[in-house]
Write a structure and sequence with these properties.
The protein has helices at 100-106, 122-131, 141-160, 169-188, 195-202, 206-216, 221-239, 244-250, 256-267, 271-278; strands at residues 5-9, 20-28, 34-38, 43-50, 52-57, 60-65, 69-72, 78-82, 89-96, 115-116. It has ten helices and ten strands. Mean pLDDT is 86; it is low at 163-167. InterPro entries: AraC-bd, Homeodomain-like_sf, HTH-like, HTH_AraC, HTH_AraC-typ_CS, Tscrpt_reg_AraC-type_HTH.
Length: 280
Amino acid sequence: MSRKMQFHNINNQFNHTDLKVHQCGFEDCNPKHSWGPGVRDYFLIHYVFAGQGTFKKENKEYKIKDKQAFLICPNVVSSYQADTDNPWTYAWVGFNGLKAETYLDLASFNQENPVLPRVEDDSIIEIFNKLNDIEKLNQNKEIKLLGLLYLLISRLIETNGSHLSYHNNLNNQKEGYIKRAISFIENNYHRKITVSELANYVGIDRSYLWSIFKKKVSTSPQQFIIHFKINKARELMKKSNISIREVAQSVGYKDPLAFSKIFKKKEGISPAEFKKHFQK
């Protein structure tokens, strides 16, 4: 492979909840190239094409060689470094979602077992190559990347997975709470929604709702509500010619100025600038 490094940060425009791709990349590392110690707020899989290096998770150290994969879990202190004499070449994909932890558990790939043995499977290499040929995915890029992520995880399950039952009661219960909350937001985004109201609807404590949102969706309930409303506002401004005031009212903001401030904070431009761009 002739590519030295490629990095792709994915701008998600759809409200995927089961799995969501955040980034992917490829690097032919220099000797002693390193990252960390640090934490991520999503899952990050590295697959080593060639060479070797060291991966550290909290107080454990792992020697990684070609055709092995290692996993960084959300909010777990980790670091890694390329070998001095035989630095690795690897590809990676970062993701999260309601089903991410469950799917990885099926592959026996998790916080307790963050390193997979050598995976002799050319289809995994092919999937990573396709992930990093992202510039060729002109139409429906985000959906195609998501499809490749599902293919990757399914191959990991087939090659390394335990035969644990898919229905882990605790995980399914938490996922049920999240889906119930998201369904409420989808049906009520046109008005003001408080986190307390959301927790009462789901039937759990507000602090517990916050903790499972952070664990399963990597954001707080309040930020999820705002993100959902802003996405709906984007859709309205792309597809219709209604005023900013009407857009604000449609996504639950009585004050168009407050809506504009939140929109600009999230999107980097004002609603008027966004609307103007799509009316050219």
